[in-house]
Amino acid sequence: QVQLVESGGGLVQPGGSLTLSCVASGFTTSDNVMNWYRQALGKEREWVGGISVNNWSTSYADLAVGRFTISRDSAKNTMYLQMNNLEPEDTAMYYCNWARAWGRGTQVTVSS
């Protein structure tokens, strides 16, 4: 069973940057895409983007295009979400997902 642990969240000023990490362990899934989601207070969880574990190809939601970059380090079993030019609207709990597994999330707050 896959276990996922996110880290790297925190408080950042508008226009700032942050990089989140997701460490995977215990994986036996054949699902080939790892994803980032986020959920703001009072809103539904939304997909941010994903990366193939086979060929490292990435795809992004419109909210992430041009500002966020997803990458992987297979040796460290880690997926990253680099976020630039952050806006207050990016404030949310960010979750890592792989197949049916979800991490507990890491909070990102964008505020001056």
Features:
7-stranded mixed sheet, 112 residues, 4-stranded antiparallel sheet, mainly beta
How would you describe what is shown here?
Helix content is 0%, strand content 53%. It is mostly beta strands and 112 residues long. The strands form two sheets. Strands 2, 4, 5, 6, 9, 10 and 11 form a seven-stranded mixed beta sheet that branches. A four-stranded antiparallel beta sheet has the order 1-3-8-7, with no helix packed on it.
Largest sheet: 7 strands, mixed
Task: Give the helix level as a range of percent.
Answer: under 10%
Outline: globular
| Elements, N to C (H/E) | EEEEEEEEEEE
The percent range for strand residues is over 45%
Average pLDDT number: 95
Poorly predicted segments = none
Count of strand segments:
11
Structural class: mainly beta
Rg: 13 Å
Contiguous helical run count:
0
**Termini Cα gap:** 40 Å
